[in-house]
Write a structure and sequence with these properties.
This protein has 477 residues and is of the alpha/beta class. It has helices spanning 35-41, 65-76, 92-98, 112-115, 144-150, 170-182, 197-205, 216-223, 250-265, 267-277, 301-311, 315-326, 346-351, 360-377, 384-397, 399-411, 419-429, 433-436, 449-473; strands at 7-11, 43-48, 56-58, 61-63, 80-85, 103-109, 119-120, 125-127, 129-134, 162-165, 187-190, 211-215, 229-234, 239-245. The chain folds into three domains: 7-123 and 242-277, 3-Layer(aba) Sandwich (D-Maltodextrin-Binding Protein, domain 2), CATH 3.40.190; 129-237, D-Maltodextrin-Binding Protein, domain 2 (3-Layer(aba) Sandwich), CATH 3.40.190.10; 301-473, Lysozyme. The longest helix has 25 residues, at 449-473. It is globular.
Length: 477
Amino acid sequence: MKCFWKIFVALLALLLVSCGGHDRSSDVKEVNLDLAAIKKSGSLRAITTYGATSYFIYRGRPMGYEYELLTRLAEHLNLNLEIVIAKNLDSLISMLKKGDGDIIAHGLAITRQRKERVAFATPHTVTRQVLVQRLPENWRDMKLHEIEDALIRNPIDLIGKKVHVRRNTSYYQRLINLSEEIGDEIDIELAPGDLATEDLIAMVAEGEIDYTVADQYIAAINKTYYPDLDIKTVISFPQRIAWAIRKSSPQLLEAVNDWIYEMKKGLDYHVLYNKYFKNTKAFKRRKEFSSYPGGRISAYDDQIKKHAAMLNWDWSLLASMIYQESRFDPETESWAGAKGLMQLMPAMTERFGLEDPSDPQENIEAGTRYLLYLKELWGIIPDSLERIKFILASYNVGENHVSDARRLADKYGADPDLWEGNVAKYLRLKSKKKYYNDAVVKYGYCRGDEPYKYVKEIFERYEHYRRVIEFNSKPGT
């Protein structure tokens, strides 16, 4: 019988395992809890961290490569799935051994040291470690050979360079070994244990540090957010990525391995992998707005004007939002399953009774109804222009994350009713552990750069649209 399972997210208050960030899992007595006891409890508890490849909330919907694999495993085992979020990456193995969870689903590289502590399931991914570095500041104006000359391509050139990684990672061990291989010192800077690989990649992109190391597949998905990064320099042999299970859980290990074997033979596994790691946002040279004559923006202007009036918005603002969502393509469907001109997620289409998401009129009507709901929700924001920014951000990432950011803004002395430099600042900070683990935050990790850019780009494009419309409305034009 197909199980109906619930998703629980347990945010654990963890003790610091050491002042230096070392994982003292070897000091922890391992619990004896195998598949029979897990089935008796009714839940499979998976330990992971927030991240773009592991687990995150997108428009109110849990997503992530590891997460989606786990949902399939839990269904196969006829168990509910409980997601246990580790605040510190260095504590993953100790949490597993203590019994805080049954499986680590974070994509650990199999190393000899880790194999002494845990049992690894059949690898589900093979990757290589790459150097993450910034492209030259003016790389778009440079010739290819000039760009290459400015980058590190030979690991020997890492001698004396400062590379930031966490201690208890395969990246740290690889840099130690690489120093031995090239016969000189790489300046390995130890990053705090509560920083994720994605945090370090973001720090490279933002110019805070020059280099870090990441698995190739993690680097690739982050490059879609940070196009100024270079991830082509490989510094390791292929490495196997796998989930970890207690050595005292051989029955669970066997069940997971059997499932992985069958899963990898099917199409679903490859579709899922491509969804997260192959479907990158290709750079396309498109015009910022359509070239319709006579001050028109799109083929749907009449519908947009009608529904913008319901919102009491300038219609070109709504048009800019729709362009941001779908580029005025009613047939478009995002990697996350959002459909139509206003990119409505499945939950929204069901909520507003949308029968055909590709129908422009139906889609705009349903999207407007959602915007009206958000407008009422954010009636607490006094200024009407500021209120629109809160509405747009909520449409993109969900009102819960925006509410979290308002609470953070209020706590840290910013204005919870202002967007730029206030709530927007703390929404962006929700991708950092210090903030998404803050006591006032209820909805965890959020890649806040996305809604920030979403609002910013809509308003920038809106100004372009407004000027074009005003120009075309002048006599003689």
